[in-house]
Each structure stands twice: as C-alpha cells, then as structure tokens.
Amino acid sequence: MSARHHVIVGAGLAGALLALLLARRGHRVDVFERRPDQRIRGYEGGRSINLALARRGLAVLEAAGLGDAVLRRAVAMRGRQVHPLGGPEAFLPYGRSDAECIWSVHRGRLNHLLLDAAEAAGARLHFHHRLGLVDFDARRAEIIDDRDRHARWIDFDALLGADGAGSALRNAMQGHADLHPEITPLDHGYKELRSPRTPRAVSASSGMPCTSGPAAASC
Ligand SMILES: Cc1cc2nc3c(=O)[nH]c(=O)nc-3n(C[C@H](O)[C@H](O)[C@H](O)COP(=O)(O)OP(=O)(O)OC[C@H]3O[C@@H](n4cnc5c(N)ncnc54)[C@H](O)[C@@H]3O)c2cc1C
Fold it and tell me: Which one of 33, 186, 192 would you pick to mutate in the ligand 1 pocket, going by the greatest count of ligand atoms within 8 A of its CB?
C-alpha cells in the first residue's frame, strides 16, 4: 500500500483515534490542533468532564487495542438514582443485569491515552495550529500557527475534519460545494457541577460487581 499523506484537523477524541488508526495502517499522518497540548497544559474541562462510554465507543477502542487500558481507568455505571422532590428515591438500571452497564471515563485522560498512542504509532501532532483556508483543487490546506500568526500551505492526499461542531473544514467545504448542512444551535447552555463522593456511593461500589471491569460505582 502506498503511504498517503492524511491531514487531520482537530486532536479531540475523533481526531486522535483516527490518527492512531491511519498511522497504524502505514499512512503519513499530520494532525493540526488549535489548542495547546493538553498533556502538558492540563485538560481544560468543558463538555462534561466525564464521558459515558457505551458498547459502540468501547468497540472502536478495542479495535485500536486500547479497550483494556480504557476500562482500567473507567467506572461502571449501572443505572441512575432518581431523587424526586416529593417521593422516595429510586434506582433505574440501564440494563437487565449488572453486567449491562455503561462506563464513565475522564474525557481528558481518554484523550491523553489516544494522543500518546497516535504518536507512538507515528502520527505527528502539531498543537497551536489551526486550519485556515483550503484549496481543494490543488489539495492544499492553509495552516496557521496561532503563536505567531505564521501561515503556511500543506499538501495533502486526504484532508479529514475532526474539528468539532463548528468545523472550519465543513465551512470551507460549504464554500466549495453546497452541502446543505442543517445546523440548529441550542438555546440553552450547560453547567458542570461537582459534588463530593458520599459514603453511600462508596458502599454501593463495593457491593455490586460489574462483570467486565475492575472499578464499579452506582451513579
Ligand atoms: C455537555 C456535553 C456532554 C456530552 N457527553 C457525552 C457523553 O457522556 N458520551 C458521549 O459519547 N458523548 C458525549 N458528548 C458528545 C461528545 O462530546 C462529542 O461527540 C465528542 O466530543 C466529539 O469529538 P470530536 O473529536 O469530534 O470533537 P471535539 O471533542 O469537539 O474536538 C474537536 C477538536 O478540534 C479542534 N479544532 C476546532 N477547530 C479547529 C481548527 N480550525 N483547526 C484545528 N483544530 C480545531 C478543537 O480545539 C478540538 O480539540 C457530550 C457533548 C456535550 C456538549
């Protein structure tokens, strides 16, 4: 197989995983991420710190050889405790048995793991670099170093957008051909709340083993 040059925009969960899988296939991979390297600067938070991982997400992590590494850092969530204002609390299980659970993983740590694995597989990661313009006919992308505003053009065989909801690549493609995107902004935001772990939550974790992973807690 000839090594194609894949340029990936965005080093979030999707971009880092894609970089890993393509690099493992022997492709030349460059990833451009506008933020600093969160492995050095620390995770900025946002978008809920913990991610609920279901079977579909685990399947692709297993395909990337990272299933066990992720599960070692995960907490099983078997259901949800409902606290009605007027009535008794109730536990609503997610599955038919304790083995059917979803997994809570720290979004930043998952991203770190994927970035490390992508780099180890040979992908080159460029932080502080964002996508500007794209010349689709010439297959060149303008990459801007946000530290000094220096712009340069990079040749690619394939340009892959993993740059999130407000994708710069999708906007550039829209200028090239009408994609008819449907974008509906939410008229509300979200807020992250922290609550200390209670003794009750600790005892729930020790009493209810989940068959496929080491750590368990009721959330
Ligand atoms: C409040 C909230 C809670 C969620 N909870 C869950 C959950 O529990 N489980 C779940 O499965 N999903 C959850 N999601 C959805 C999940 O967060 C997204 O599906 C996931 O983050 C998408 O990953 P991504 O890599 O495609 O994009 P992102 O995580 O958004 O990453 C995009 C990356 O691209 C970079 N970027 C952007 N523009 C440029 C540019 N021009 N040049 C270079 N880089 C650029 C950004 O800096 C960023 O690092 C939640 C979403 C929200 C909003």
Answer: 33
